[in-house]
Design a protein that fits this description.
- This protein is α/β, with parallel strands linked by helices.
- The chain contains 13 helices and 18 strands.
- Strands 1, 2, 5, 6, 7, 8 and 17 form a seven-stranded mixed beta sheet that branches. The protein has a four-stranded antiparallel beta sheet with strand order 11-15-14-13, covered by helices on one side. It has a three-stranded mixed beta sheet with strand order 10-16-18, with helices on one face.
- The two termini are 32 Å apart.
- The mean pLDDT is 93.
Length: 532
């Protein structure tokens, strides 16, 4: 199969890019691949909203920029922050023009929310399902473009580079090129070759590397892992954001239900086992401090009292307003027997967002030629050491646009590379026992949760690396001798992601943003990005 533009991922980043390219290049073919169904993305589960300066009476670009820089704890690129904040306004207008609806107040103005780390009310939202509203809008928009081919149930296995032509490719190779991908077509149950002139990775996050995450099961770090295997540059993977308030349900692991930060923006208060409001002990901004501070505070309170959760008190909030703004949270709590008008909501931190990823420049170009990346899988240096709430959807739209601008410039100068070999599965057999995969996944998620969580130590990181080495060796042996399956590929990718997180954490001899190591509790004077 050949396609001019290949997009891997169908969230806000991938679909924004596909739609823009399709409109600009009606004579070109754009193929969008998704490994399950098209709407199963991280975007779909985003509750809070999109941060953007739309009310210039009280807000300004300067304030949004400053809030982002403060949250990023010294590692944001100020140039990138300014680009995203200023260009983001046009991208928000664009998505509204495509059909996205955001909540308005009685006067017809946008009902802006406020979340942790923000100095003003600037979050546009659609109740507590903003991501789903955007995802549905984008899918409807691309459905009207005949040159966009959306293919479900296609699992991308690896990037095709000179390596597949028999050349030695290393990290120091200056001109690594992407010629397309090998993909496991789950409907045909065979690995196929897709050649492309331009490839965009919009593959989302990697929350499934942890035992409890707000991410769906598809968030297995595929784009980051494939880029690393292809000798592309990966950056700042140690900065994993734990959302402070995922719904705690005893005995439940995997994907946790998110209690958006906007609940605290509207007046929710965090309380410990004794019912005491504790955030004032940790930060003057109390419950609306940035996420890294709130998550560590909750973690500390849980350790002090030996509990597995704290509580979110919404009992003093206007019930009618709560139900209107957060209907899904209200329904979820009610379904498990929690009356938010009289009972506290049990919450605990859960892996939520990766601030690092595929290293890209200001136009979304990775270190591999003709391979672009945007969205959560990319490291643009917007977020620095800690993402400001609701900046992620904004970043995805801004960089999808920039990837589009740059890639359409060069599309006509690129030729297909015709001499790529087909996938060779000779000598492999069907896996005899799925337990070899599922048990390794459980081990991985457990060791990452216990050793590489909100608070880290050198000894924990060293133990994690030793166990990762063993899991890697076992999984590579399985990969070389058995036929490829999505489960095996995801395990392989998650082990790679785990390695990148641990290795980056070991290189960072300080505590900054989302990375807190008790052996290096202070922030270093040396501001550096960790590139692997």
């Amino acid at each position: 199969m050949k396609t001019d533009f290949l997009v891997v991922g169908s969230g806000i980043a991938g679909l924004t890019y596909a739609l823009k390219v399709a409109e600009d290049c009606p004579d070109k073919i754009i193929t969008v691949l998704t490994k399950t169904v098209s709407d199963e993305t991280n975007t779909k589960y985003a509750q809070g909203g999109v941060a953007g300066v739309t009310n210039f009476d009280n807000d300004s670009f300067a304030k949004h920029i400053e809030d982002t820089l403060i949250a990023g704890d010294g590692l944001c690129d100020p140039k990138i922050v300014e680009i995203v904040v200023k260009e983001g306004v046009e991208r928000i207008k664009e998505i509204i023009s495509w059909g996205a609806h955001f909540d308005k107040d009685n006067s017809g103005e946008y009902a802006l929310g406020k979340e942790g780390g923000h100095s003003e009310f600037r979050i546009l939202h659609h109740k507590d399902v903003t991501g789903k509203e955007i995802e549905d809008t984008m899918l409807a928009a691309i459905a009207g473009k005949p040159n966009i081919h959306l293919i479900n149930h296609c699992f991308v296995v690896d990037i095709i580079t000179q390596h597949h032509l028999g050349y030695l490719v290393t990290k120091s190779t200056p001109d690594i090129e992407c010629y397309g991908v090998y993909v496991l077509n789950l409907q045909k149950n065979k690995i196929e070759k897709i050649l492309s002139k331009i490839t965009l990775f919009a593959t989302g996050g990697n929350g499934q590397v942890y035992r409890t995450t707000t991410n769906p099961s598809i968030a297995t770090g595929d784009g980051v892992a494939m880029t690393y295997r292809a000798k592309g540059k990966i950056e700042n993977m140690e900065f994993i954001q734990f959302h402070p308030t995922a719904l705690y349900e005893a005995g439940v692991s995997g994907q946790a239900f998110l209690i958006t930060e906007a609940v605290r923006g509207d007046g929710g208060i965090l309380r410990n086992k004794n019912g005491d409001a504790f955030m004032e002990k940790y930060d003057v901004r109390k419950d609306l401090a940035p996420r890294d501070i709130v998550a560590r505070a909750i973690d500390n309170e849980m350790k002090i009292y030996g509990t597995e959760n704290v509580f979110l008190d919404c009992t003093k909030m206007d019930l009618e307003k709560f139900i209107h703004h957060f209907p899904n949270i209200y329904a979820k709590c009610k379904s498990i027997g929690i009356d938010i008008a009289s009972q506290f909501i049990p919450v605990a931190p859960a892996a939520h967002y990766s601030c690092g990823g595929i290293k890209v420049d200001e136009w979304g170009r990775s270190s591999i030629l003709n391979l672009f990346a945007c969205g959560e899988c990319a490291s643009t240096r917007l977020h620095g050491a800690n993402r400001l709430a609701s900046n992620s959807l904004l970043e995805a739209m801004v960089f999808a646009h920039r990837c589009y601008v740059e890639s359409v410039k060069k599309i006509n100068s690129i030729e297909f590379h015709e001499s790529i070999r087909d996938w060779n599965a000779k000598g492999t057999i069907a896996p005899k026992e799925m337990i070899l995969i599922t048990q390794s996944l459980k081990e991985l998620q457990l060791l990452m949760t216990d050793y590489v969580g909100i608070v880290r130590t050198n000894e924990r990181l060293e133990r994690a690396m030793k166990r990762l080495d063993l899991l890697h060796d076992e999984t590579e042996q399985l990969y070389q001798t058995t036929s490829v399956s999505p489960q095996l590929c995801e395990l392989r990718n998650l082990i790679t992601v785990g390695y990148l997180i641990v290795k980056s954490a070991q290189f960072r001899h300080e505590s900054r943003g989302l990375h807190f190591n008790t052996d290096y509790p202070e922030k270093s004077d040396l501001v550096q990005n960790i590139v692997l």
